[in-house]
């Protein structure tokens, strides 16, 4: 049964996008799961890998994992992607080698 769930998860292939509106709202598509959240940080797993949203007074106003949608309100300070497993260094280390 576990193998079936992993295959289903890998087969999603949804589009992943991030839209930030005036640093007050961030909309993310292609979201597979929210791993943890509090008022300053939200960690999620997207179909493209891990992602962390940073800010102040963050509030999840919409979460629909069936459609892969997440909307967060608050003051958005930034976001970053987790390094993909098996990659060697971050983007800058690969660019400047």
Question: What do these coordinates show?
Answer:
It is a single chain. With 97 residues, the protein is mainly beta. The chain has a single domain (2-83), classed as Immunoglobulin-like, CATH 2.60.40.2000. The protein contains 2 helices and 6 strands, in the order H-E-E-E-E-E-E-H. Strands 1-2-6-5-4-3 form a 6-stranded antiparallel β-sheet, with no helix packed on it. A hairpin with a 3-residue loop joins strand 3 (31-37) and strand 4. The protein is globular. The N and C termini lie far apart (43 Å).
The CATH architecture assignment turns out to be: Sandwich
What do the pLDDT scores average to?
A: 81
Total domains:
1
* Biggest β-sheet description: 6 strands, antiparallel
The best one-word shape is globular
Low-confidence stretches: 1-9, 92-97
Give me the CATH fold name.
Immunoglobulin-like
- End-to-end Cα distance, whole Å, is 43 Å
> Largest sheet, order of strands side by side?
1-2-6-5-4-3
| Strand/helix succession | HEEEEEEH
Helix amount, in percent? Answer: 10-25%
> From the helix content, strand content and strand pairing, which structural class follows?
mainly beta
What is the number of helical segments per DSSP (H or I, 4+ residues)? 2
